[in-house]
Batch of 3 targets.
Target 1
Amino acid sequence: MWTIVRIAYRNIRRHGRRAVFLAAAVAFGVMMITLLNAFTAGAIDNIKGNLASVAGGHVFVAGKELVDGRREVDRIGDDEVLRAAAGRVQAPVQSVHRRSAVFATLIFGSKTTLQSIEGVDFADETDFSSGLQVLEGQRVFGAETDPRALILPKSAAERLGVQVGETVLARLTTVTGQQNVGEFRVAAGVGELLTAGFSGAYASPEDVTGLIRRAPAG
């Protein structure tokens, strides 16, 4: 009889240890899942914030004008009609900004890369400027204090082999279809804002607009 009791007691103790180990394993698994979910949620929120600062909820309007009543150019001279239309939109419009944009070939020494350049008024678009992930260089931008400054994605800077403070040339096509060349100083290197790995470069709207509307010298 006592032999049976001892065997039963040993079995109970053995199963008890197994239960403790099983409970510990389950608790560890739950903890890891919770941590993973928290990390994933944080990463998703960060990505959503980055995308929202670039294009989330944004409406981009591009237009053409007739010059001399017959030739089209890619520009919007008078934007009062568009601003009035934005004021009549039922959904709340947080802000309206004007930008100039162009695809340019950046040149540094013997290296070139195709890069979009947008003219951004950083004094006006404070939410956008605060969302830039500045990896190197200056963190405050403004055409008044730093003309010809170019904020360049770090990947583009690496392709060119250019450092902050050095000068690059930008070869582009004006709104009238002519070729033009401008000069920019790399003021900062920023992280990619788009998940596709392609992000724009940024300069003052005066600099970009001046290049795409100006007739080349000579």
Target 2
Amino acid sequence: MFGMDDKKFRLERFLNDPHHTLIGYPDRGVVKTSAESSSKPVFVPRYPPQRTTSGSEQSTISHDSSQLSEPSSVTSLDSLASQILTGQPVHTGFGERPGPDPQLGIGTMSAIGHDYYLPCPLFDIMDCRFRFHPDDIERWILHSESHFHPSGPPPKSVCNFCDQMNERFDSTVTGDRYESWLNKMLHISQHYALGDLPENSRPDFFVLEYLKRIEAIDLEDYNNAVAYTERPPVDGLVDSDVESPSQARARREQQRRERVVDDLAKEKRAIRRAGVRRR
């Protein structure tokens, strides 16, 4: 077994000496002797750079020492690693390592472009303004769980966008509250990817009850959140406990009919009259 320093030395020697073959590394090329100059060997790279030529040019190519020569400079091990990590084209005796393809996006460090972002799921309840790039979905989920620390995510929740209650995430089904919350967050991320906007989301009343129970929000914030309604504003619309004048009159009349008056004096007189008649 070779140590790290020994491997580095052998690789540097291999990269800088085209005529030296090391055990454990492929042969870099072959050495030919030109007919015109037998004193100077000609190095033919194992993977020469490709070159497009016409048929007439291919028939007239001469492999002499003026056309095939050793590369003027061979990259050292440290600079080679640096070029590979930065995505730059690498020139060695093996040929050229192509740089990043802008059309394929391979080799680049830039994130995929998205026209949406992932807001904190409690942005409207706890006034949290954190938002994340779609590629940072794991950090987005971890951030959402931090609002429930140290109690953990709620045992039950629903989708904030779906009209039906079919998308319900219940830990009694999964057996794990974190898994249920993860499923909800992944489901919501798909809504954002499809174009749903944060301002069109609804409050999750299961989550609201849980936040109040663990005292993550106060009663005022809870009451403001549960007052959410999708009913459009209507002129003259009042609360259900408001009584109109006609309703008040009807109520008083009904109470009058149902009222029973106990007159003790009248009852005593009736008792005396009944006794006189018996005599």
Target 3
Amino acid sequence: MFLKKTLAIIGILIPILFVISFGLLFSSNSVYYEVIDELPLFCFNILELQGSIWVRIFNYFFIGVLIIVFSFGLMVLNSKSFSNNLSLLLLASTGLIWCSFSFFSISIEDEDPLDYAYIVIFIFILFAFLAFLLLSGDILLMIKNRNVKRALVITSILILTESIISFFVSDYPFMIPNLSILFYISVFPILGYNLIKEDN
């Protein structure tokens, strides 16, 4: 089925593009490494960084759009289940949040540029947790591999656990949320790969 193959490609591309784009960002801004090493992955739309326009267009807008397309594509595959539709709307919302960071920039010279980050990270992680937890209940309608269901449950538990732990870790306040984002991104190739297997 063409839709499954397209979604599979998108799912596999999302983490690849994520790693490449942030890798290029880090390598081209070594002078700001001490600053960006302490930032959440939401906050690299910094005016002073080399290639900040590229960051907004590619790291946030393009990857966010791919997540939204992937989510609605999965909804088309199984649109009869309310919980499935709700989970994928939540997943699409995380893509929209990610995409929204392309529309504004912050500056290292700002008094407190990360004020908004705490609220956004909370909403993003909450939506990701609920999306994966709800999706795990209906994923077998699209993908028969039970390991995918387990992966979704484990990822949602890890995201929730890390969020709770982050309240008690003050030295590196964004380290744990960043891990949650990496777990979140890792789900897309799992879904994508298994969609290809289902279609063969």
